[in-house]
Task: inverse folding
């Protein structure tokens, strides 16, 4: 990295209270404080957020698409984790 | 995220290409860490960089009128629009970076003239009405081009375009409203509006690129679902949209051959001066030199600021988000 | 026209309008794209404040585009040309600190400016934060940025005294804001490893300054550019 090349940050925005932060995009900033401010100016110009996280892009560990099978498929055969798996007699409420 | 480039280094194992192609066939999205053919990656980088550069260079012809906007309402609108363009450039650079290319690298290429931006911004904004014509015609043409990109096969590009299209909807409307006020205003204002439309109409049609018979990249880009419609298709769509809008404006489009073709169910229009198009592309437009010089100057004169912030972060130990 | 508003809303509105005009000149010239966005945000906030304030006095456009230089009541600080980025940041630091203190006071009062001040105080707090962050980075960045930042602070110092001249009808003792202003500015300046400028904070010219309609040379040119189109089409609507 040269002095002219600020590091990249990933930006996560909570669009309103009660929702989780979701990935909005990335930006460049010299440090965390400026990254937050730049994110505010860039990603919430139209009042799109109430809270922002910034994370250095280099600090993110991602699952690899090659691991797709071993990572995500085992969960695919556990339908009992989903509520629609269970049959409930008609008329039973609040379940 | 920037971790993308590493994946393609692995020898393209059997099945990778097939997985890529079946994702395209299913109209699914390609994501940064997926394997993709080198040429697909290169095409995307070229296109996204050019798109980002266009937003950044595109700030200049409009910023030219911020200081002179004739009402405070118009000044605020124009400032917000130029600011959006900087923002859109940033979204697009950020999307391009997911392909493993740095923004500084892309900017260097722009400054060195090795990557392009849309030729339309090499035309000057000579009067206030040009701000309106740019909004109505240039943004209109850009939107016609961009809406299909929201379904582009590359996920980060498509997502950036969704955000951009949403934000840009006001850009075109403010331009149209501005022209309408001029057209219905004094005689001098009306003349100003007509003059601007006369100058911007043909360059706007050129924004869709060379005719399909000559367009080098189109076919492959369509197959990859980076592009969804041909240049001529989009150009025709744009002309058909503009004709009734011009009527409401009370302004004429400067093309004697423009008329409704009942049989085709579309407007016929005159020949585009492709010599001018190629000359402007080659660097011989009225503002090529001026635009790139201003961009380069801003970048060079800003170097000490960027260096200062880097140095400060290093002293504070906060450069990579280390908490003090 | 309400004479109290003429004497209060006009100067504050002119401050905001003129600074917005200056900041707008940065569009497309900022040292980094993120700052193009940030400076435009600040300019838009200020322009919004100006429109509310001028509208309290009369027609915003007539006031912005129809007045001669001598009728503008803004302080000279805000009309100073942008200079380099450090110069702009120094102007921002001085002015946003003042505006934050002033609007905080006004928001607590019951004048007709109170509603505007209550909304604007959040905006100017952000402007102050922006100026502070950059003063720290430029002051404590490289040798070059340190020197430029110090030069900006020094060059604009002579325009800071005017901020605390009384504004008739405001109901706020502006002179009393000087102490907290000095405290805040010098805290940032010291943290940025810079030194507070010495010497007089006003010029010695007895004719007065911006609040009396006496401006600096570059202001006339700025207004000429800002007003020419509007004035070239008398009575036109845009």
Result:
């Amino acid at each position: 990295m040269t002095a002219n090349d600020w590091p990249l940050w990933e930006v996560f925005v909570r669009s309103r209270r009660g929702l989780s932060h979701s990935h909005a995009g990335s930006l460049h900033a010299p440090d965390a404080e400026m990254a937050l401010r730049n994110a505010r100016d860039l990603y919430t110009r139209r009042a799109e957020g109430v809270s922002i996280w910034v994370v250095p892009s280099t600090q993110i560990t991602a699952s690899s698409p090659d691991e797709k099978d071993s990572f995500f498929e085992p969960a695919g055969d556990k339908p009992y984790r989903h509520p629609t798996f269970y049959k409930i007699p008609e008329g039973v409420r609040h379940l | 995220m920037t971790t993308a480039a590493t994946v393609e280094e692995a020898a393209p194992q059997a099945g990778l290409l097939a997985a890529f192609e079946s994702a395209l066939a299913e109209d699914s999205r390609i994501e940064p860490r997926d394997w993709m053919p080198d040429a697909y990656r290169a095409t995307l980088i070229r296109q996204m960089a050019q798109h980002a550069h266009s937003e950044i260079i595109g700030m200049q012809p409009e910023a030219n009128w911020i200081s002179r906007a004739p009402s405070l309402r118009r000044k605020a609108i124009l400032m917000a629009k130029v600011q959006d363009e900087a923002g859109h450039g940033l979204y697009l650079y950020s999307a391009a970076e997911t392909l493993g290319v740095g923004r500084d690298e892309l900017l260097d290429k722009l400054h060195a003239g090795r990557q392009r931006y849309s030729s339309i911004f090499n035309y000057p904004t000579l009067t206030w009405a040009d701000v309106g014509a740019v909004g109505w015609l240039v943004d209109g043409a850009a939107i016609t081009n961009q809406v299909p990109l929201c379904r582009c096969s590359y996920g980060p590009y498509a997502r950036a375009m969704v955000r951009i299209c949403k934000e840009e909807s006001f850009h075109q409307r403010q331009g149209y409203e501005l022209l309408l006020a001029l057209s219905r205003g004094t005689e001098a204002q009306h003349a100003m509006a007509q003059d601007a439309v006369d100058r911007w109409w043909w360059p706007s049609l050129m924004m869709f690129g060379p005719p399909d018979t000559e367009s080098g990249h189109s076919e492959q880009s369509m197959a990859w679902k980076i592009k969804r419609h041909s240049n001529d298709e989009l150009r025709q769509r744009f002309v058909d949209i503009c004709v009734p809008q011009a009527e409401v404006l009370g302004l004429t489009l400067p093309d004697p051959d423009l008329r409704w073709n009942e049989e085709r169910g579309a407007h016929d229009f005159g020949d585009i001066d492709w010599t001018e198009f190629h000359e402007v592309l080659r660097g011989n437009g009225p503002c090529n030199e001026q635009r790139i010089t201003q961009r380069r100057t801003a970048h060079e004169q800003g170097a000490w600021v960027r260096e200062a912030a880097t140095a400060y972060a290093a002293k504070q130990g906060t450069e990579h988000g280390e908490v003090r | 026209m309400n004479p109290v508003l003429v004497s209060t809303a006009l100067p504050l509105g002119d401050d905001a309008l003129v600074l917005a005009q200056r900041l707008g000149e940065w569009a497309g010239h900022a040292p980094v794209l993120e700052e193009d966005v940030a400076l435009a945000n600040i300019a838009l906030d200020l322009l919004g404040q100006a429109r509310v304030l001028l509208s309290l006095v009369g027609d915003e456009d007539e006031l912005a585009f129809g007045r001669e230089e001598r009728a503008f009541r803004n302080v000279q600080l805000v009309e100073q040309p942008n200079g380099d980025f450090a110069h702009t940041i120094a102007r921002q630091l001085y002015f946003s600190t003042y505006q934050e203190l002033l609007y905080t006071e006004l928001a607590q009062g019951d004048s007709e400016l109170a509603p505007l001040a209550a909304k604007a105080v959040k905006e100017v707090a952000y402007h102050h934060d922006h100026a502070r962050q950059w003063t720290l980075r430029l002051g404590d960045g490289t040798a070059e940025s340190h020197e430029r930042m110090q030069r900006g602070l020094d060059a604009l110092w002579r325009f800071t005294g005017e901020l605390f001249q009384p504004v008739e009808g405001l109901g706020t003792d502006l002179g009393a804001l000087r102490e907290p202003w000095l405290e805040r500015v010098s805290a940032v300046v010291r943290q940025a490893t810079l030194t507070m400028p010495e010497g007089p904070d006003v010029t010695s010219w007895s004719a007065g300054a911006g609040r009396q309609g006496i401006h600096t040379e570059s202001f006339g040119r700025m207004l000429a550019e800002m007003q020419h189109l509007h004035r070239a089409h008398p009575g036109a609507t845009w």
In short: The helical segments of chain A are 32-43, 68-76.
